[in-house]
């Protein structure tokens, strides 16, 4: 069974055919997905989708949504996490983090929301799902201040030193569409050489489409059903059988997000 550790199934891009997308994913062998919310207004939708389709979800405020977020959204997150204390489908605080790539974002504001959400993750004993874009050192600075129960550094694209420091904080590194690009030399090198327990697979659907969904300079929508083919790329990079990659991904995902293990053992 394949696990997609990061899939925005609640995104508008799936509104027209969400059930068909799910059916294609399950036909491809992807039977578990983690849906990270990106703003307070979407907390209910992420949870509802997870419960309706037997999936998992996370609650958080994405750094790209901090311009329109209010400080009271941290209270809404706290309330959502409190309400979900006994919800086995709530597996993490996420997607949270820092984005130093997109121009015009207020770094100080991003960092305030990030720090507040780390505190909540620590308070509720939940792992985190981190957005990392040219921000690994900033993320690590706050992780040093607010230690959390591990999690996933999503779409990791940092240096080997940064990767090892993330792993030192108990985080797994997420690999998906970008790993399939021939030009992603550093990503592919790390995916090939990291310890076997240091990574997980993800699609970030509908974003970061794999190489086979990029045609004539345009990118088509990414889907969770693409995950097994991404697993094939990981298998080639690590010189492993595909089944071994699927098994390692499951083991590592459950280590990163411990509530997943019980969910997989007793899905209903």
Essential attributes:
TIM Barrel, 268 residues, eight-stranded parallel beta sheet, alpha/beta, two-stranded antiparallel ribbon, 10 helices
Q: Number of helix segments?
A: 10
End-to-end span in angstroms? Answer: 16 Å
Count of spatially separate domains: 1
Highest-level CATH class:
Alpha Beta
CATH topology: TIM Barrel
Helix content: 40-55%
Profile the largest sheet. Answer: 8 strands, parallel
What is the total tally of β strands?
Answer: 10
CATH homologous superfamily identity: Metal-dependent hydrolases
Rg result:
17 Å
Global morphology: globular
> Would you list the SSEs in sequence order as H and E?
EHEHEHEHEHEHEHEEEHHH
What's the architecture in CATH terms?
Answer: Alpha-Beta Barrel
Amount of beta strand: 15-25%
Structural class: alpha/beta
Write the layout of secondary structure elements.
Blueprint: E1 2-4, H1 18-27, E2 30-36, H2 43-53, E3 56-59, H3 72-83, E4 90-99, H4 107-124, E5 128-133, H5 136-145, E6 151-154, H6 160-168, E7 171-175, H7 185-193, E8 199-201, E9 214-215, E10 218-219, H8 227-238, H9 242-256, H10 259-265
Parallel strand pairs: 1-2, 2-3, 3-4, 4-5, 5-6, 6-7, 7-8
Antiparallel strand pairs: 9-10
């Amino acid at each position: 069974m394949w696990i997609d550790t990061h899939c925005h199934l609640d995104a508008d891009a799936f509104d027209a055919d969400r059930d068909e997308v799910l059916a294609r994913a399950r036909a491809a062998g992807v039977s578990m997905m983690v849906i990270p919310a990106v703003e307070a207004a979407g907390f209910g939708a992420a949870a509802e989708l997870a419960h309706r389709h037997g999936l998992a979800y996370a609650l958080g405020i994405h750094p790209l949504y901090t311009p329109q977020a209010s400080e009271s959204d941290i209270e809404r997150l706290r309330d959502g996490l409190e309400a979900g204390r006994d919800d086995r489908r709530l597996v993490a605080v996420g997607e949270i983090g820092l984005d130093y790539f997109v121009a015009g974002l207020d770094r100080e504001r991003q960092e305030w929301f990030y720090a507040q959400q780390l505190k909540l993750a620590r308070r509720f004993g939940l792992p985190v799902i981190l957005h990392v874009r040219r921000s690994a050192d900033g993320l690590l600075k706050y992780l040093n201040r607010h230690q959390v129960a591990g999690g996933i550094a999503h779409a990791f694209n940092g240096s080997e030193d940064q990767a090892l420091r993330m792993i030192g904080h108990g985080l797994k590194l997420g690999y998906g569409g970008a790993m399939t690009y021939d030009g992603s030399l550093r990503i592919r090198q790390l995916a090939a050489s990291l310890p076997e327990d240091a990574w997980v697979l993800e699609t970030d659907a509908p974003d970061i489409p794999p190489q086979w969904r990029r045609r004539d300079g345009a990118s088509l929508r990414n889907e969770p059903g693409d995950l097994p083919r991404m697993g094939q790329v990981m298998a080639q990079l690590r010189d492993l059988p595909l089944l071994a990659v699927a098994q390692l991904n499951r083991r590592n995902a459950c280590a990163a997000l411990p509530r997943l293990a019980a969910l997989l053992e007793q899905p209903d």
